[in-house]
């Protein structure tokens, strides 16, 4: 039996539906139920990755705080941090102290397990009373004039079982994209799939890496590289047939063997907040998009 009155278990087959009803009320338009269904189909069920803390009114979920484990490398050291996510209170039940009540329980649960907690939010004032602080992040920009030789990238189709197996293999065996802040091999793959599987994922067979990237005209935006090695920037650019004149990297590029200009940046209008120890604080980094919660 749980020590915590709000901690629930997805062993209850009705819990997911009731929780997603709450989340879709609070975050309309995100279609979280279908997103969760997609991750299950990819063998990365959200229910195995998140520990839910939920308050109910009869059978209705009225407030929720979720906890994830995120394996990171921070300043060269392996760290498992707790990720706070999907914080939600039903609009009809706000200003009654339910959020504070659940958060106190969540923090007691987390303090027994993690030295560090992270979350991303556009409302830092909700978390500052609980000991979270904003940590500055950076994007990294480089001008160039590069064009690869031919079309050597494969756009993954995550409805294809072979492509899903490839993704699982590389997530399980990946090395961190950065020694400053990077993601370690992931046994639980749901967070990556929620953040990245609805976006283009490219496989570079020559390099045996999956690249999370977007190209707009001649601008390359690089969000993550998943593989057993991290290629140099030149090796990555050689895979891209389009002309690239500007590169923006949304993680510390210390392994790309190239120089960049670091600029303070808030990714997707969501500030990174930390509670507890965070060795990269004050350094130049960004928590990769694939590991944000």
From TrEMBL:
Record keyword Transferase present: yes
Keywords: Transferase
Record-annotated N-acetyltransferase domain positions: 1-147
GO molecular function term, any single one: acyltransferase activity, transferring groups other than amino-acyl groups
Superkingdom as given in the UniProt entry: Bacteria
A Pfam family assignment: Acetyltransf_9
Presence of the UniProt keyword Transferase in the record: yes
Xref: SUPFAM superfamilies: Acyl-CoA N-acyltransferases (Nat) (SSF55729)
Name of the protein described by the UniProt record: GCN5-related N-acetyltransferase
Organism: Gloeocapsopsis dulcis AAB1 = 1H9
């Amino acid at each position: 039996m749980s020590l915590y009155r709000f901690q629930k278990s997805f062993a209850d087959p009705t819990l997911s539906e009731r929780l997603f009803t709450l989340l879709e009320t609070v975050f309309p338009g995100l279609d979280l139920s279908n997103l969760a269904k997609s991750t299950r189909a990819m063998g990365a069920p959200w229910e195995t990755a998140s520990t839910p803390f939920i308050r109910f009114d009869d059978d209705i979920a009225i407030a929720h705080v979720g906890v994830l484990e995120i394996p990171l490398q921070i300043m060269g050291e392996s760290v498992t941090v707790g990720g706070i996510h999907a914080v939600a209170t039903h609009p009809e039940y706000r200003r009654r102290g339910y959020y504070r009540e659940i958060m106190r329980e969540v923090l007691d649960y987390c303090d027994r397990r993690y030295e560090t907690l992270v979350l991303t939010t556009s409302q830092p004032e909700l978390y500052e009373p609980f000991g979270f602080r904003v940590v500055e992040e950076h994007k990294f920009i480089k001008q160039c004039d590069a064009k690869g030789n031919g079309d050597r990238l494969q756009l993954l189709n995550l409805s294809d079982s072979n492509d899903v197996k490839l993704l699982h293999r590389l997530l399980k065996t990946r090395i961190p994209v950065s020694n400053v802040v990077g993601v370690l091999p992931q046994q639980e793959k749901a967070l990556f799939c929620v953040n990245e599987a609805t976006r283009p994922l490219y496989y570079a067979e020559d390099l045996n890496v999956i690249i999370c990237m977007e190209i707009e005209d001649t601008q390359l935006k690089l969000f993550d590289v998943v593989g057993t090695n991290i290629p140099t920037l030149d090796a990555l650019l050689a895979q891209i047939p389009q002309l690239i004149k500007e590169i923006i990297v949304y993680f510390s590029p210390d392994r790309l063997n190239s120089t960049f200009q670091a600029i303070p940046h808030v990714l997707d209008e969501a500030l990174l907040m930390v509670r507890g120890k965070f060795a990269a604080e004050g350094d130049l980094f960004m928590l990769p998009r694939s590991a944000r919660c």
